[in-house]
Amino acid sequence: MAYRSMRFRIEISAEKYLLYYNGSARNVITRSFDGRRVQFPASSLRPFVTHKGISGTFELRFDQNNKLIELVRIGD
Predict the structure, then answer these.
(1) Distance (Å, rounded) from C-alpha 22 to C-alpha 24?
(2) Could you report the per-residue pLDDT of 7-55, keeping only the tens digit for each?
(3) Are 32 and 8 in contact (CB under 8 A)?
(4) How far is the C-alpha of 71 from the C-alpha of 62, rounded, in Å?
(5) How many of the other CB atoms lie within 10 Å of CB of 57?
(6) Contact call for residues 10 and 71 (beta carbons, < 8 A)
(7) What is the number of other CB atoms lying within 10 angstroms of the CB of residue 65?
């Protein structure tokens, strides 16, 4: 399956992620390394949450309709 991707770095404290987890915020918005605006469901970050929050470099993979395929952590 062919996909497109964007890479970005994100830092979210555990306290801030609770807003996403509790439903106060549904989407995460950030900028990719090449300057594009990235918006995706906060729930896709759930596998990467630690007691300190979320930190790392990620690759967002999506199809030709901009539907999320997967979010992969690619670095610290």
Answers:
(1) 6
(2) 999 999 999 988 887 878 889 999 999 999 999 999 899 999 999 999 9
(3) yes
(4) 9
(5) 14
(6) no
(7) 5
Nearest to 60 by CA among 16, 15, 14, 37: 37
| Res 57 pLDDT > 90 | yes
Distances (CA, A) of 57 to 12, 18, 65: 12, 20, 24
Measured CA angle at 26 (ends 73, 54), to 5 deg:
30
- For the chain, what percent of residues have pLDDT higher than 90? 78
Task: Please give the Cα distance from 72 to 44 (Å, whole number).
Answer: 10
